Amino acid sequence: QKEVEQNSGPLSVPEGAIASLNCTYSDRVSQSFFWYRQYSGKSPELIMSIYSNGDKEDGRFTAQLNKASQYVSLLIRDSQPSDSATYLCAAPNDYKLSFGAGTTVTVRA
Amino acid sequence: DAGITQSPRHKVTETGTPVTLRCHQTENHRYMYWYRQDPGHGLRLIHYSYGVKDTDKGEVSDGYSVSRSKTEDFLLTLESATSSQTSVYFCAISDGGLSTDTQYFGPGTRLTVL
Predict the structure, then answer these.
(1) Across A1-109, where does the E strand assignment appear?
(2) Which of A47, A90, B76, B88 is most buried, by CB atoms within 10 Å?
(3) Contacts of B51 in chain A (CB under 8 A)
(4) Residue B84 has pLDDT above 70, yes or no
(5) Confidence of residue A52 (pLDDT cuts 50, 70, 90)
(6) CB distance from A108 to chain B under 8 Å?
């Protein structure tokens, strides 16, 4: 079973700050990674996917992948109250996804 | 949003009764998945399907069965519900099922077993 571990939360940041979320995975073969955002009482929605080493930026979100260290992170710049949610890291596992337990982020106004 | 619906959205049932949850998609995606989500455990895969009548077990399949007789429908059955199956159940779909593909989730079903 391939494992995905996320840094424990919850994470509280002031509005305008950078929120940093981390994820490690056990499988060296994994080629792609996904970050999902889940608002309370809602379903997960995909916000970022990353397939190669380095950084990928999308608006205020930056995903960073280091395959050698088996580490993927998500940075949320200029955090807004609307970013308050649980963020799930996921890695492929054959034709399935393995999810981390999630990190809950609260942005303080 | 991907065209995925789940029914019912909420259900309360008693221990020992059978329960069937339905996932319906309008995207014609090949792969469909059932997850449960519990505090502290994230999303855990119950069963998945890679085509009509083609299904396989996930990591927490005990006590659950599935069926897929049409591309658009994926049913999850609890043959005899137990309190440990109280959870939020999500259906997801994906097009290719490859490692570079993504999954899209339905709105979820909140199941309470008394």
Answers:
(1) 4-6, 11-14, 19-25, 33-38, 45-50, 54-58, 61-66, 71-76, 85-93, 96-99, 103-108
(2) A90
(3) none
(4) yes
(5) confident
(6) no
